[in-house]
From TrEMBL:
Pfam families: CH, Microtub_bd. One of its GO terms (cellular component) is microtubule. Residues 471-634 form the Kinesin motor domain. Residues 146-156 have a biased composition (Basic and acidic residues). Residues 127-167 are annotated as: Disordered. InterPro entries: CH_dom (IPR001715), CH_dom_sf (IPR036872), Kinesin-like_fam (IPR027640), Kinesin_motor_dom (IPR001752), Kinesin_motor_dom_sf (IPR036961), P-loop_NTPase (IPR027417), Vik1/Cik1_MT-bd (IPR031852). Residues 271-361 form a coiled coil. One of its GO terms (biological process) is microtubule-based movement. It comes from Aegilops tauschii subsp. strangulata. This is Kinesin motor domain-containing protein. Belongs to the TRAFAC class myosin-kinesin ATPase superfamily. Kinesin family. KIN-14 subfamily. ATP binds at residues 555-562. Residues 12-117 form the Calponin-homology (CH) domain. PANTHER family: KINESIN-LIKE PROTEIN KIN-14C, KINESIN-LIKE PROTEIN KLP-3.
Length: 634
């Protein structure tokens, strides 16, 4: 029958195709077309059906590996798979056959079928011979194309140009799915459809050959006896030869395709390599340009370096000349130094010999000293023994002394305790006395306050006494005759008790020959410096009490002003009024230092011919001081 079903191929259809093929090939294969995968697996799993199929299609192909059925089903399956692998067909794994999907087994068997059918070899003829003959319907043959055109299309059979291109290969394949012996029973419309459609274009070669063989078998069967066996044999051989040539051609085309594909891959890889090379060449060009630039830069640098090198060469030549000169100088210096060194060496050798002699003497002296020191050591050892004996005696004495001292310390401790007790009693007594002293001190403070009051009163009274004595006092000191002066020619006639002095004038007669002067006091010629100062001394105390005091000497030249104010010498008895006044000033200020603080300033001024000079100034120009002059003149 012809399957004009849906053009879509389902796995069930592929399985049915295999079942159909195996049913035609193997007499014992009796599975129905709608058998399941598991039913097909159960039939094929021991591998014997597979091996038998291969042997049927290609007798002797399992020689060497076949050897009959094996008890191990896996071995049979592996033998079949080895044949499939040798043919370059898609195989399957034993595990798929045992428990996996049956699709790979189905596809493998269909590929085997197509491959063997395309080969149209001996196996196919055998296969065809064993299949039951079917009646073949007369098929009109359309016009055939040229063999070259057939080759371009990849198939040998002719196609009419008006065939519909919409029919797919599966559809065309189904168009040629016949049960044998039915070609003659096909309706004319169906045959016309087969011829008009493009089924021939898309049908597998095996199907087409099957049609040819089927029609041939049917025709021979129908014309049994009419066609001679020779013709039948010839016809079969011609068909086989055609199948054989087609298979060779297909194989050749496949080989060509594979060669072209290999070349194409090779050319593609070459194109890729060339593209890479072109890209690389561009990069290399850029790199070469960059390198060229770098080389130029390097060249300019090298030129500069060469110039610098030449300059360095010149400089080095000069330095070399300098160095040679230096070397020459150094050689000369070395010669001088070597001469000096030789001289020095000779001197040192001389000194060394002297030192050796000296050291020999010193060694002898040292040996002598060593001998002496040994003797001394012996003496010292003897003396130390004596000393140690003496020290042991002293130690005994010291021990007895220490024992006595310990006893003494005990006594001292007892005494110290008693002293502590006494000290404690004394402390208590002192405390009482200190408290009494505090009370006495308070009394003294009160007394001192009273004393200060009394003292202030006393000062006040003292200064009042000074004022009563007179704010201005004039004393007269009579200078004795100087050596060489006539002692009889004195003008002092009388010196009274109350400051009167009578001066005689021999050039005048009577009353006019005498004149009386009155002073606060008259110091006669025998009066000492201390006696003169004793009348002035209270005024110094008035100065420290805050009163202004002025003491000055007045008299003609040589009358004794300097003698009275400064004194004739440096001894304390010779001190004049100035020295004594200053001495009292500092004495009283020291006594009062806890109560008062005094500052003392000194000026030495000379007034001569109405010129005032500061005698303490080092600057001669500054000595003249008009301020004093103004002061004194007013
Ligand atoms: N009281 C004296 N006792 C002994 N000698 C005196 C006495 N007074 C003055 N002389 C002597 O008289 C001399 C004159 O005295 P001094 O130089 O003191 O006088 P002067 O007044 O300072 O004179 P001038 O104004 O010239 O300086 C000196 O030799 C001095 O020793």
């Amino acid at each position: 029958f012809v399957c004009f079903g849906d053009i879509q191929t389902f796995p069930d259809d592929r399985r049915a195709e295999v079942i159909d093929w195996l049913g035609g090939l193997l007499p014992e294969f009796d599975l129905p077309l709608d058998s399941s995968d598991e039913e097909l697996r159960e039939y094929l799993i021991d591998g014997t059906a597979l091996c038998y199929t291969a042997d049927k299609l290609m007798p002797g192909v399992l020689e060497g590996v076949w050897g009959g059925y094996a008890s191990d089903h896996r071995s049979n399956v592996k033998k079949f798979l080895s044949v499939i692998a040798e043919m370059g067909l898609p195989g399957f794994s034993v595990k798929d056959l045992e428990e996996g999907s049956m699709s790979s087994i189905v596809e493998c068997l269909l590929a085997l079928r197509d491959n063997v059918s395309a080969g149209l070899g001996e196996n196919m003829s055998n296969y065809a011979a064993k299949t039951p003959s079917r009646p073949v319907a007369p098929v009109s043959t359309p016009g055939r194309r040229s063999p070259g055109e057939d080759r371009r299309r990849g198939l040998w059979d002719a196609k009419s140009p008006q065939r519909s291109p919409l029919l797919s290969g599966q559809k065309a394949n189904e168009v040629f799915q016949f049960k044998r012996g039915q070609y003659t029973d096909l309706p004319a419309a169906k045959i016309s459809e087969m011829i008009q459609s493009n089924s021939l274009d898309n049908a597998p070669t095996q199907s087409l050959l099957r049609v040819v063989n089927g029609i041939l078998d049917e025709s021979i069967e129908r014309k049994r006896g009419e066609i001679p066996h020779r013709v039948v044999y010839l016809l079969r051989n011609v068909v086989q030869e055609i199948e054989h040539r087609i298979s060779i051609q297909a194989e050749h085309i496949r080989n060509q395709n594979s060669i072209i594909k290999t070349r194409e891959d090779k050319y593609r890889s070459k194109i890729k390599a060339l593209e890479t090379l072109v890209n690389g060449t561009n990069e290399e060009n850029e790199m070469a340009i960059n390198r060229l630039e770098l080389v130029k830069v390097e060249k300019s640098k090298i030129d500069e370096r060469r110039k610098i090198g030449e300059q360095d060469m010149v400089r080095l030549m000069r330095e070399k000349e300098n160095a040679e000169n230096t070397v020459t100088n150094l050689q000369q210096e070395i010669q001088v130094m070597s001469r000096m060194f030789e001289e020095y060496r000779e001197q040192m050798e001389e000194k060394t010999s002297q030192m050796e002699e000296h050291l020999t003497l010193r060694a002898k002296e040292a040996e002598f000293l060593l001998t002496q020191s040994k003797k001394r050591v012996e003496e010292v050892e003897t003396a130390s023994e004596l000393q140690s004996q003496l020290w042991s005696k002293k130690a005994n004495t010291f021990r007895s002394f220490m024992d006595n001292q310990k006893l003494s310390i005990k006594d001292i401790r007892i005494s110290s305790q008693s002293i502590k007790q006494e000290m404690f009693a004394l402390q208590m007594k002192w405390r009482d006395e200190i408290s009494n002293i505090g009370l006495d001190l308070k009394g003294l403070v009160d007394a001192a306050e009273n004393y200060h009051g009394v003292l202030a009163e006393n000062q006040k009274l003292f200064n009042e006494v000074q004022e009563l004595k007179g704010n201005i006092r004039v004393y007269c000191r009579v200078r004795p005759f100087l050596p060489g002066q006539d002692g009889k020619s004195t003008a002092v006639d009388y010196i009274g008790e109350n400051g009167e002095i009578l001066i005689s004038n021999p050039s005048k007669q009577g009353k006019d020959g005498y004149r009386m002067f009155k002073f606060n006091k008259i110091f006669n010629t025998h009066v000492s410096q201390a006696e003169v100062f004793s009348d002035i001394q209270p005024l110094i105390r008035s100065v420290l009490d805050g009163f202004n005091v002025c003491i000055f000497a007045y008299g003609q030249t040589g009358s004794g002003k300097t003698y009275t104010m400064s004194g004739p010498g440096k001894s304390k008895e010779d001190w004049g009024v100035n020295y004594r006044a200053l001495n009292d000033l500092f004495d009283i200020s020291l006594k009062r230092r806890n109560t008062f603080s005094y500052e003392v300033e000194v000026q030495m001024v000379e007034i001569y011919n109405e010129q005032v000079r500061d005698l303490l100034s080092n600057d001669i120009a500054q000595k003249r001081n008009t301020r004093y002059l103004e002061y004194f003149s007013t």
